[in-house]
Amino acid sequence: MRVETPPSLTTDQFSRLARIVHDDSGIVLTEAKRGLLMARLNRRLRALGLAEYGAYCALLNSPGGASERRHMLSAVTTNVTAFFRESHHFDALTRQVLPPLIEAARKGRRVRLWSAACSSGEEPYSMAISVLECFPDAARYDLLILATDIDPVMVAKAQAGVFPETSVQGLAPAKLSTHFTRTGTSYEAGAPLRSIMRFAELNLHHEWPFSGQFDVIFCRNVVIYFDGDARRLLWQRFAAQLHAGGHLFIGHSERLDGPASATFRLAGPTHYVNTAPSPAGQSV
Ligand SMILES: C[S@@+](CC[C@H](N)C(=O)[O-])C[C@H]1O[C@@H](n2cnc3c(N)ncnc32)[C@H](O)[C@@H]1O
């Protein structure tokens, strides 16, 4: 039997790939991640029938390289997530954040929530469950949850709304039976959840297609992969994208720093309120 040696990534090739990943996504890959990158990309090289990384670098830099760059990002991103992860955020959402927004929605105001790095969807579906539990007729009003991610594979999963048993294990049985239908070993999100959700591919480091503002942004467990400049710029962009009094939730090991920290007031653990006056007034 012939045993094929997997291609290996030289220091120079690693630096070239890490630079592309950083330019495209803001994600920093340190030298310590070389083995991980290789393990993930070797599968990609096999799928493309490429024997070594020199050819892969050439493909990424070729005129058709943009689509392969998206595949590479998909391979390097970490998509770990869970329903009601950091449950205190959902307690704050239910108790403090949603009541005035529901009142506003009932009076006809547009209300928008954004899960800005939604991975396979557990986070935005947890937001939607929280909304429906306080506001069962939400779909009759102008309230939407936008779920976006850089990784098209994750966005497709989130949009499909079908979760394996391992993913729903942490959900309270009452939530599971109310909001999901079991099909074999999978659980499918019900129509009421889907009716208040929208999905799209979005790179946080690119232009955002929004003309209005959000009331709530969840951007959790993603800036830990970014460098300081990319992270601080993102906080400033969130401040501009939130209504005055809008809420920003970030991951437990993340911190709000740079110029935007003067704009946000701490409202709870890794939960911030925008104190800047709203430039536009209208929601997204
Ligand atoms: C660890 S998951 C976090 C998921 C969820 N927010 C949570 O806390 O459970 C990080 C997600 O960030 C996404 N991501 C990484 N870089 C991004 C970027 N530049 N723009 C948008 N999403 C990005 C990844 O694709 C991945 O799905």
Automatic annotation (TrEMBL):
Pfam families noted in UniProt: CheR, CheR_N
Signal peptide (UniProt feature, chain positions): none
EC number from the UniProt entry: 2.1.1.80
Catalyses which reaction(s): L-glutamyl-[protein] + S-adenosyl-L-methionine = [protein]-L-glutamate 5-O-methyl ester + S-adenosyl-L-homocysteine
Tagged with keyword S-adenosyl-L-methionine: yes
CheR-type methyltransferase domain residues: 2-277
PANTHER family xrefs: CHEMOTAXIS PROTEIN METHYLTRANSFERASE, CHEMOTAXIS PROTEIN METHYLTRANSFERASE 2
Name of the protein in its database record: Chemotaxis protein methyltransferase
